[in-house]
Amino acid sequence: MSKMWGGRFNKKTNPLVEEFTRSIQFDKKLAEYDCIGSIAHAKMLGKCNIIAKKDAARIVSGLNSILSQIKKGLFKIDYSVEDIHTLIQNALDKKIGKSAGMLHTARSRNDQVSLDIRMYCKKEISSIIGLINGLKSSIKGFSKKNMDVIVPGFTHLQNAQPVLLSHQMLAYCQMLGRDIDRLNGSKMRIDVLPLGSCAISGTSLAIDRNFVAKELGFSKVSSNSMDAVSDRDFVIEIISSLAILGMHLSRLSEDIIIWNSQGYGLVDIGDEFSTGSSMMPQKKNPDVLELVRGKCGTLYGSLVEIMTVMKGLPLTYNRDMQLDKEPLFKSIDVAQSSLKILTELFKNLKVNEGRASELLQDESIYATDIMEYLVKKGVPLKDSHDIVGKIVAYALERKLKLSEVPLRDLRFFSSKFNKDVYGLLDAKKSVNLKNSFGGTSPKQVRKQLENA
After folding, report:
1. 147 φ/ψ angles, rounded to the nearest 5 degrees
2. Residues 141 and 346: beta-carbon distance below 8 Å
3. Which of 15, 95, 364, 406 fits a disulfide with 62 by CB distance 3.0 to 4.6 angstroms?
4. How far is CA 321 from the centre of its chain?
5. Of 30-44, 120-134, 258-272, 319-333, which range is least confident?
6. What phi and psi values does residue 154 have, to the nearest 5 degrees?
7. Which of 85, 169, 155, 177 is CA-nearest to residue 367?
8. Measuring CA to CA, how many Å separate 178 from each of 13, 214, 332?
């Protein structure tokens, strides 16, 4: 198989170099985009009379035939070839002969590779956004189904205040919404055509870059050829956005893992999303969620990898940049698989309402409501905080629930207490009181559901 370069070399490439520099094992993912980009390029060359129209037509026809094979899974990948661009060029040579040699006119692999990656990223970002919306919809469905369930909300993994379960779940919808915003921002910045920048400085040939941009659906054309061929910050940005997404999915998984544990028993993730132990017959493990949590490390690793590759490169193209694809492809695969599995898991997730009620028997979680009760009666917040803290300590020392502390004892701490304070020691009452915008009251959570 011929290379796309080699005229100035007198000796064959060392086989070790061939093996070390080969990228087809991972850049084969770009095969479809390489054909589509080359078809637009060939059409432009013919339109601008840079090559004969009949040669352009033959190239387009040959590439369409190869593209059809790729889409049907019939295109054979020869792993001895340097990269996917060379493989497709060789296939075109075999299919149409001499005319194939004109395809690379006014183009370098530098701008060709950048184009292919950008087209790949545009499509995959759209796919990931669709999957994030799918997970949001699944969480929203779970929240609606369990709209009235109240659970203890945690800070520092300690009981904090009662919240609607749906409120906590919708917090993740907010995070996922920001993930979509970041990816949409990345997609906008990717939407720039690099083709026509050639190796570094553009070309003396009278090409029409706007024609190619329109053919390929790009909204802009790159305005600096050196930046276009050496820019990989769009790859870094995508991987960074996916690392943040992975962090959100990991936190979501951790919450469900904790709730699913026997110590909490708030949810059951179902047998179909659990695995067992080869040693302990009784075990039902949340392995799927643990793997989503673990794969977040893969996303972080990919980000460090690409940042390290790019950090010291002088302008313009350097072969190091070939190493951008593995972390990119890996990150996209991890994000997509994690989103798919979590979407299905939430459709089957069951809540143990009885256990939720048991956990709400810890009346210390109403301490903030009692504090705000005093604030409403004119007691400064600092003093209210101190008073309620002392009451909680008093109850703990005597092994009493707050509801069991007599009113006369409460009045010892503050004369502002009346019988109505005991009505605050109720989960429904507590969440209904949190009616500030964005709070956990049913009214506010319904608004969140509408906007989710």
Report:
1. -60, -35
2. yes
3. 95
4. 23
5. 258-272
6. -110, 145
7. 155
8. 49, 30, 18
Looking at 68, 80, 277, 357, which residue is catalytic? 277
Per the CB < 8 A criterion, the answer to whether 410 and 385 are in contact is no
Same domain assignment for residues 192 and 145: yes
Domain limit, last residue, from 288, 323, 358: 358
pTM: predicted TM-score of the whole model, two decimal places = 0.94
Structural domain includes residue 10: no
Residues 189, 289, single domain; the answer is yes
For residue range 297-318, list pLDDT tens digits in order. 999 999 999 999 999 999 999 9
- Distance CA(386)–CA(367), nearest Å, equals 11
What would the pLDDT profile of 222-235 be if each residue is shown by its tens digit?
999 999 999 999 99
DSSP string, 140-187: HHHHHHTTT-EEEEEETTEEEEEEEHHHHHHHHHHHHHHHHHHHHHHH
In a domain, 54, yes or no: yes
**Average pLDDT value over all residues in the chain:** 96
Catalytic residue status for 156: yes
* CATH number reported for the structural domain that contains residue 310 in this entry: 1.20.200.10
pLDDT digits (tens, 9 = 90+) for 21-61: 999 999 999 999 999 999 999 999 999 999 999 999 999 99
Strand, coil or helix: what is 109? helix
Range of the domain at 401: 361-451
| Residue 400 in domain | yes
Q: What pLDDT is recorded for position 57?
A: 98
Count structural domains, the chain.
Answer: 3
Token pair, residue 164, equals: 């609607």
Residue that is written with structure tokens 């951008």 in the block: 324
Closest CA to 235 of 148, 323, 132, 316: 323
pLDDT band of residue 411 (cuts 50, 70, 90) is very high
The band of 114, judged by pLDDT with boundaries at 50, 70 and 90, is: very high
Q: Which residues contact 302 (CB under 8 A, 6 or more apart)?
A: 239, 242, 243, 327, 328, 330, 331
pLDDT of residue 1 exceeding 90, the answer is no
Instruction: With residue 27 as reference, give the H or E element that holds it.
Output: helix 24-27
Give strand ranges (E) for 165-288.
192-193, 220-221, 267-268
Confidence band (pLDDT; 50, 70, 90) for 5?
low
Any residues with CB less than 8 A from the CB of 229 and at least 6 apart, and which?
A: 108, 110, 111, 114, 194, 197, 198, 199, 200, 316, 317
Which one of 78, 105, 132 terminates a domain?
105
List, in sequence order, every beta strand (DSSP E) within 273-418.
350-351
Residues paired with 193 in a beta bridge: 221
Distance of CA 360 to the CA centre of its chain: 34
Based on the domain organization, do 224 and 342 belong to the same domain?
yes
